[in-house]
Amino acid sequence: xxxxxxxxxxxxxxxxxxxxxxxxxxxxxANTLRVASEKPPKQLDLHxxxxxxxxxxxxxxxxxxxxxxxxxSISDELRRVIPKNGAYWNRLxxxxxxxxxxxxxxxRNEYPWxxxxxxxxxxxxxxxxxxxxxxxxxxxxxxxxNCRSPPILISQPDRCSSGGKGGNNQTFLLFxxxxxxxxxxxxxxxxxxxxxxGVYQHGLRVRIVFLLGASSQDDPDLxxxxxxxxxxxxxxxxxxxxxxxxxxTLKMNMLLKWTVKHCPQASFVFxxxxxxxxxxxxxLTYLQTLDxxxxxxxxxxxxxxxxxxLRDPKSKxxxxxxxxxxxxxxxxxxxxxxxxxxxxxxxxxxxxxxPFFPIDDVYMGLCTKALEVSPEAHQRFQTFDVKEQDxxxxxxxxxxLLLHQxxxxxxxxxxxGISSPLLTC
Length: 425
Ligand SMILES: *[C@@H]1O[C@H](CO)[C@@H](O)[C@H](O)[C@H]1NC(C)=O
Ligand SMILES: *[C@@H]1O[C@H](CO)[C@@H](O)[C@H](O)[C@H]1NC(C)=O
Hints:
About 40% of the residues lie in helices and about 15% in strands. By secondary structure, the chain is an alpha/beta fold. A hairpin with a 5-residue loop joins β3 and β4.
């Protein structure tokens, strides 16, 4: 009898131990993106999912059914362009596609913003074997690459519905300009020239927002100046993340999110830098003369069509081979491109599935590839510069839709010039 009791007690202990052991195991896998899993991918078919399955939602409220409801699917072409290999980003992409395929939420591992970077440390240690050899800024990018919900510091929820006396307040073109907090002069030059808000030819309404991140701790505190500027012009949007080169994809994502929510009726959105020169009237004419099918699928700019990652660690756009391996899809240079308003919501949903890439315009190329929207090359968008001898040439400025790298003074001078009725080209 005694022996039987001891025996059952032992069985009980062993089962308890096993239960405990398996539950920790489960926790571990649940907390880790299973990027190393060797399961072969099935064909992705978002429409074939069981509609009764409840999908977990993220803090953003995103579910995979959002993609279904809006009839958005991820193109097979993306799979063909992106090699399936051991690089981290490539593994993340295919893992996300596999999750979608299985009806899971690819973003189930998104941590809340304040702890996100910290929580991602383990993930990186496990998945990126040479993480410590990455440049410091690149390491910072990786730590935050699935932190997608920075708090908004300055918002303008009424931006797109204000100023509509007489009924017509439908935004035809929204200028969404990437700026940084100290660039007061650049923003002012843009407001006074090509970015002036108002109703242009044929009643087309143009609006503008500037997108800002936050200053770093070492920068002078500009927050009071910025809130003054925001109150005065009501065209600033600011989020609480460091305004750095490798955070531009996050900024682009915040633009999509903001526009989908607050400016959903905009016909076109121009995304660009605060040091470009735009011929607004010519751009509006171009956009207005597009036929309807093209106007709803537009992604136009200076197209870079067969680029690959730069592998020189000293380059501004360096990409470590163990992070991304493969060519870039064609994309429009980030200095300035135009995209149809109707593509923003699909892009925003798609961007919840495609892992962040450190270069914002390449990221846009990846997301549009997933939607099977091809960038349209346009000779009159020049995101690199024109010939040195043409930098002061007014006719060259008049004939282009966009030129890059202009000082505020140069923008003012050229704008005055091309607006002159005396100019003959
Ligand atoms: C236009 O403005 C009015 C108020 O001025 C607002 O109620 C309406 O929603 C706006 N329409 C659009 C399309 O934003
Ligand atoms: C992006 O912003 C976050 C939040 O401010 C910061 O911690 C991170 O270092 C930034 N990333 C890069 C690559 O600069």
